[in-house]
Amino acid sequence: MREAEYTTAQAKVAFTYNSRSPRTDPTHGRRPHRARLPNEQTRHQMVNAIQPPSQNTTTRPRISFLGCGYLGATYAICFAELGYEVVGFDVDAAKIESFNTGVLPMHEPGLPELLKKNLESGRLRFTTDVQAVADFADVHFICVGTPQRKGEHGADLSYIETAVVNLSKHLSRKVLIVGKSTVPVGTAQWVQELVDRHAPEGLGVEVGWSPEFLQESNAMHDVLRPNRIVYASQSEWASQLLKDVHRGILELAAVEDREVPVVETDLATAELVKVAANAFLATKISFINAMADLSEAAGADVVDLARAIGYDQRIGNRFLRAGIGFGGGCLPKDIRALSARAGELGVGESFRFLDEVDSVNTRRRTHTVRAVADLAGRTSGPNGPDLSGVRIAYLGATFKPDTDDIRDSPALDIARRLRSARADVVVYDPEGLENAKAYAPELSFVKTLAEAVADADVVCAMVPWEEFRTLDPEALGRQVAERRILDGMNAFDPEQWRKHGWSYQGIGR
Ligand SMILES: NC(=O)c1ccc[n+]([C@@H]2O[C@H](COP(=O)([O-])OP(=O)(O)OC[C@H]3O[C@@H](n4cnc5c(N)ncnc54)[C@H](O)[C@@H]3O)[C@@H](O)[C@H]2O)c1
Question: Is 330 annotated as catalytic?
């Protein structure tokens, strides 16, 4: 690993020097100040806090993002906000039209405002015309999906292949193609070979990699103010271009007196960093969920246990909340792809534990169905319980709060299992209803919390949206048929709920 070569401190020096020129001064003459920590700011303030830094195009490459999903769209919008000229490309024409008319086709806090603002600035546009993209950008980021292959654990790289081949054929000058999608180690080398085969001869197009760590629901903040930047290139030319591409982030950090560590490394390491991070997080979650099983069996309380071990800074208390398990478009498929790739490279044994991490996670779902059956007073036979006649108010369908993303959502999977057990499952989710309806049409969906809980025999509070975390046991109790609650979020005080006559069941307590 090479030492980080361009840090926030250097950006600060560059900024101080440039600040003599109003054209390149992101603070417009004000001295850099120590910004309040982002978590103290409201999202609205965060949007307005950004002033586009330097417009000096000699150090500001033009950028394209291929694939405008949760990752690519956030990047396109945020990089326009940072002062870059940006084009977003996608094969989904309806999505592109939506962006161009200023409507964000997904739920991500803060991003709709930023989309409108940057369309108006003229720095941001979206297209389905690959020739226009090839002609426009100096650096092309590949942000397409890499889902799990059907019937296998490995990653499906066909979207990457199509995007790269399509772009390469339309190039007419030397550019840098940077992979951002999460991929198995070795993909960058393969992408370089694809480019060499399909780009016009002699252009010398290069491939780099820069893994992404944004978290949906906090994506805008994570892109503008990342906790680290990781990238890899194959030449000094590409390395300089990657520095120029990230300059806006470092200049913003300098203005706000923050440090953003930069790790410049080789291609294989850059690819591995992301899956390693996700494997570590998944392991942490499954560890605490295994402790939840043990706590339930032994009469302990996993919430207190997690708090107690989390005070040890070597452990930390984040990602240590026992519950219904992890999901989403990243963690589950990434640990499976890592394990599969390790097997291909002959080191599969070292990663068998990840298969167990996956199994612990999936078992949460059967475990939760049993817990609901217990609450409803139904026994679980070898085929699970029969929940016919049980009306369940089901709160939450997304894989976490503040997103509309239902990919591999544990909450939605458990809802379907309850339906398979013949329960009448009435789902409410603040933002995920449309996606959930399309994926699980066998469930009933309602538009308000009140409709969901009316006359319910069991309330399942599954995704910690604020609307659910702040439920009042007495007010809720007046709307349901029976006071029984499964707290899949582990967010409530059991004593409080029991005091109001509820049968309360949490996870691991
Ligand atoms: N979503 C996250 O929070 C996140 C975070 C870090 C990394 N990642 C990784 O980023 C990648 C993308 O994830 P996502 O959540 O944005 O996926 P997504 O499914 O939301 O978006 C993928 C987009 O690519 C488009 N696409 C498909 N084929 C294309 C092609 N040939 N050319 C151009 N566009 C094409 C699709 O229409 C879609 O809009 C994945 O590898 C994922 O693991 C995602």
Answer: yes
